[in-house]
Design brief:
594 residues; mainly beta; Immunoglobulin-like; ten-stranded mixed β-sheet; 5 helices; 32% strand
């Protein structure tokens, strides 16, 4: 195992040049970042899938600042790769749109194949997955290439062979085709089977590598195995192990190669447009690798190259939302929100909806919107719609994004009361015709749009409600004040300073939010019996007239029930004491009023 430190000490890449005879499960590092996945591909690209060894992001670097170093050092190694300039993101697939090398060769993702499914000529990529929405949008499967070049050597000795794979690749990590999993990277991979122990030197278009192979390492698998997969991001200068890009001689117009032919190439910064393998044994004697005289290097200058010269200029497009409303009678409408180039040159339209195609209206800021698609039968709404932006006047290519059509979920309440440790969530869906299931993540399913969770000692900071119709909303939790600690938050409490809520001593349950005159103030804080706005001598007179009245025995009395301020079912001295405490005071305070 050898450890390569990339210039700048930004990261470390560990590689192996030894064969071990352990099973794969023992041989491979357990980290998913070092797992090799082999997939069928044309003859020289069987090994084009080894995901993620390191990232090279050099935002402070410049193309002119790279130092070309093709002469081997004391360790016998040389790295002459020059940096690549990574362009802005393509709005349709989320990968960098253009990659440019120091020879000013600019490439875009190569998606032009003979059958449209990734079979060359001229491009190689995994075909679209028919059941994957994002795959259909971007036009390929798990991987595609901006550029690739590979060559191999197969000598007369069955114990010797060599494979060099070079690529600028678009993949996904983890290996699930989904927006957000994009993983663009450059690759240099070598696999060499050698016939005996010794020191082997590999000269390739981007430098020189020397490997020591011990006798114990000789076996059926390649004794020399080395891969550099180095991630890059948009709008950066990337220093990997390849660059500039090799260009096939007699390549098709608009491409760097046809992906089929083995041909000579140009572009090596070291002027080594070939793969050469040389070996010496422990005594310094040359090792025969090609069946000719010992000391003659095994060499190939024929590469299979893919790459498409960049011409695409996409119209910017970002989908903010595509949603629908549906009523009980089956009517409804679709709303679409997007951003693109400012109007009037840009046209944005939504497709695949009842009524056909609808144009979005834009403004000078590039914001587009439509909410004008009335559907006589909203039950026929699709799960997915396509939104396309095009600016033909400025000669920009159309951009089409597949977008899920979702209901609009609105959380109207997300409250937490610390005194009762109660969390209450209320939400609605715009689909009133076929109400979807609403679920508060990690909390449970809402019943008729509401969910109350008891004994919540530590509430979440926010709540997310998702719909079975794919909509979602997020709302921060509101912690409600309960000044009198009676379990009723102040905003809902008809007496905020006098306990009369759900938390009451035994036997006092009857006074919970009791408001017998219906004026919005609970009885415990409302001794204004004549509703004059203040407790005065008139109220004293009324309570004297109702003294010892039993509300349940005299329900016809207008003030008997109200005068029982403490709810003990009799107007007595306790109620007189409450009135004295509030004499010449206004009712309340209360958090709500009718």
């Amino acid at each position: 195992m050898r450890e390569h430190i990339i210039p700048g000490n930004l990261f470390t890449v560990s590689v192996s040049n030894r064969l071990t005879k352990h099973p794969t499960s023992q041989r491979e590092n357990k980290s998913p970042l070092l797992t090799e996945v082999k997939k069928p591909r044309h003859s020289n690209m069987d090994l084009l899938k080894s995901v993620i060894l390191a990232a090279a992001l050099l935002p402070g670097a410049t193309l002119a600042g790279n130092i070309l170093e093709c002469t081997p050092g004391q360790d016998g190694n040389a790295d002459g790769a020059q940096p690549l300039s990574i362009g802005t993101l393509d709005p349709q697939n989320g990968y960098p749109l253009v990659i440019t090398d120091t020879n000013n060769v600019a490439v875009e993702l190569c998606l032009d194949s003979s059958d449209g499914q990734g079979t060359p000529p001229n491009c190689i990529f995994d075909p679209q997955e028919v059941d994957n929405l994002f795959s259909q949008q971007i036009g390929f499967g798990l991987e595609a290439f901006w550029w690739s070049a590979d060559t191999s050597i197969n000598g007369p000795d069955p114990d010797f062979s060599a494979l060099l794979v070079l690529a600028v690749e678009a993949a996904f990590f983890p290996e699930e085709i989904a927006d957000g999993n994009q993983f663009p990277f450059t690759r240099l991979r070598v696999r060499i089977n050698v016939p005996q122990a010794g020191t082997y030197t590999m000269t390739h278009p981007y430098g020189v590598n020397r490997y020591e192979v011990a006798a114990a390492d000789i076996g059926p698998r390649p004794e020399i195995r080395e891969t550099f997969d180095i991630e890059f991001n948009a709008n950066t200068i990337h220093q990997g192990r390849i660059g500039p890009l090799l260009v096939a001689d007699n390549s098709p117009v608009g491409f760097l190669g046809d992906g089929v032919s083995e041909t000579t190439v140009t572009g090596s910064p070291c002027h080594t447009n070939f793969l050469r393998i040389e070996g010496i044994d422990g005594l310094g004697n040359p090792i025969d690798l090609n069946g000719l005289a010992p000391g003659t290097a095994a060499e190939s200058n024929l590469f299979t190259v893919t790459g498409k010269i960049a011409t695409r200029v996409p119209t910017p497009l970002t989908i903010q939302r595509t949603s629908y409303e549906r009523e009980i009678d089956g009517t409804g409408q679709v709303s679409a929100f997007a951003t693109s180039d400012p109007a009037p040159n840009t046209e944005v339209e939504i497709q695949d909806v009842p009524g056909g195609v609808a144009a979005l209206t834009g403004d000078a800021t590039g914001t587009f919107f439509v909410r004008a698609i009335a559907t006589p039968d909203a039950n026929s709404l699709p799960n997915v719609v396509r939104v396309t932006a095009e600016n033909a006047i400025e000669d920009k290519d159309p951009t089409t994004i597949h977008s899920l059509l979702v209901d609009e979920v609105i959380i109207s309440r997300a409250d937490y009361v610390p005194t009762t440790q109660t969390l209450t969530i209320e939400a609605t869906s715009s689909d009133r015709g076929t109400p979807p299931v609403l679920t508060a993540e990690k909390l449970g399913t809402l019943n008729n749009g509401s969910l109350t969770k008891l004994n919540v000692s530590v509430p979440p900071a926010s709540v997310i409600v998702t719909s079975s119709a794919r909509g979602r909303d997020i709302e921060p939790i509101t912690v409600l004040l309960d000044t009198d600690g009676d379990g009723i938050p102040d905003r809902d409490d008809n007496c905020t300073l006098k306990p009369n809520g759900s938390i009451l001593p035994s036997g006092k349950e009857s006074i919970s939010q009791r408001d017998t005159d219906g004026d919005g103030f609970g009885n415990v804080c409302d001794t204004d019996l004549d509703n004059s706005g203040v407790t005065n001598l008139l109220d004293v007179g009324k309570i004297r007239a109702l003294f010892l009245c039993i509300p349940s025995a005299d329900p016809a009395s207008n003030f008997c029930d109200h005068a029982d301020f403490n709810g003990d079912n009799v107007v007595n001295l306790l109620d007189v004491g409450i009135l004295k405490q509030t004499f010449l005071k206004v009712p309340g305070p209360a958090g709500i009023l009718p």
